[in-house]
Structures are given as C-alpha cells and as structure tokens.
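It would be a great kindness if you could assist me with a short task in structural biology. The matter concerns a single protein, recorded as an amino acid sequence and a row of backbone structure tokens. Could you please explain, in whatever detail you think fit, how the structure tokens follow from the sequence? Thank you for your consideration; the sequence and its tokens are set out here:
___
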Amino acid sequence: MIKLIASDLDGTLLDNNGNIPKEFGSIIEELNLKNIKFAIASGRNYRETVHRFEKYKNDIIFICDNGSSVYYRDECIYCNTLDKDTVDNLISIGRNISNSYVTLSGDRGFYIEDESIANDIRNMCLNEDSVIVVDNLNNVKDLIFKVNIYDLVNTETNSYKEYAKFNLAGIVVRPSGTNWLDIYNSSTNKGTAIDIIQKKFNIDKKETMVFGDFLNDLEMMENAYYSYAMKNGHEKIKEVSNFETDFTNNENGVIEVIKKYVLKNEYATID
C-alpha cells in the first residue's frame, strides 16, 4: 500500500507553462481520505513554492532547495545550510562565468544582484515577491540553502564545466534544468529528504512513490520502490527509475499514474 507520494515540480507535476493540474485539488482530497502523504520535491525555494500551493499548505509536505529544507505545516522540520565561507567561494567562482548570473536561495527568499535579469527570474518564479535584489550577495544575512547559477547558454556545457574545474569538497554541483545549476551540501539531496519523511511518519521504501524528470531527482529515485521517470524526462533518470509514466508533464503524467495505480489500487510491478 502506498503511504507517501513525492513529486518534482518543473517538468513533472507542472506543465511547461508552470500550471498546476486541474485535478490536483481533488487528488489531494482523496489522498488525505486514504491517509496518504503527498510531498512536493523541488529545487525551488520554500517561500516561492508555498505561495503557489497556499491552498494546500497544511495538506502537503514541502521538500525544497533539492532537499536542503523540509517544511510541514509551515514548520521547518529539516534544514541543511551552506556556511558563509563556502557561499562566498561559490559566488566568486560564479561571477567569472560568462553568460551566467549567481543567485542565492535562502529562508526568506531568492537573492540576486543584477536588476536587469531580476524580472526574467520573477517571471519564472511561482511567487515573484520571493525574488530579492541586493547590492552584494556576499552581504546577505539569511540562512542559505543553495547557490544557483542562471545560465543563459546551457548548464551542462557552460557553468557546470566551469565549477567542475575546482575541488569543492562536500559540495554537489548539479544541473537542474537547461538553464539552472544547483550547488548545495553533498550531505543532502531529495533522497535524503525522502528518508527523513519516511522515518518521521514510519513509512517504508516499498510504500513510497516518487516522480522526477531531471538530474537533481536521481537520489530520490533510489528511495522509493515506485520510482517513476517522466516520459519527457532525462535519459539518466529513466535509467535509474523502476517505472516510466505513460504521459508527459504536459499531459498530466503524475496525476494519471496516481489515479490508476493508487486511487484504484492497481499497483505496477517490476518485471
């Protein structure tokens, strides 16, 4: 029996225009009646994400910043931050990469120095008010969960290769999309966050279902028997997942699996 479902947002639960599936509210209601926990597992910041899901914030768990923070009913139940020296070093490296912008994901919001690109980022955010323009990222006074690089070229061919030149002990540098690079503590990831939730609510790996589409979802796939790569997902995600959705994120792939295999109790099995 499934007791926990976790889904990535961009490219997974949301369509390419950032829309929440129309059936999401009714699905959450049905899952609650069955006492099944639902978690959003995103690289996005909590203040940004909870704004979009305000109506359901007491019904779902928020795994944010690629697992660096976990919130339940507006309380942070897990937190893994970057220390100041590490943040400053990562900022310094990022400032020297062409066609890229350094941003910080903190407890109070999403920080950026360049006003010229801020509006572009606001348009991508689930809550534009969570984007905070500052004079100097090195002077930000907040808990910093993650450093992000907004890469105007391609993260895998541009900014990722630049950071790979440095010996960043204890740090994960991972593309989370074509234009976004995520940098955070190696001791945390979405898989770690899933494990924390499983222990808190006494849920087994075999009772867990997860959905993802990109490289920052890799560890999460390993912490669930019912690991689903999106049909539109990265090939590496498909390689490590036990299952693949029949439909893309634009076709409500996550919702269709939940309806068929959870609400109707027709569970898939590995051949």
About this structure: The chain has a mean pLDDT of 94.
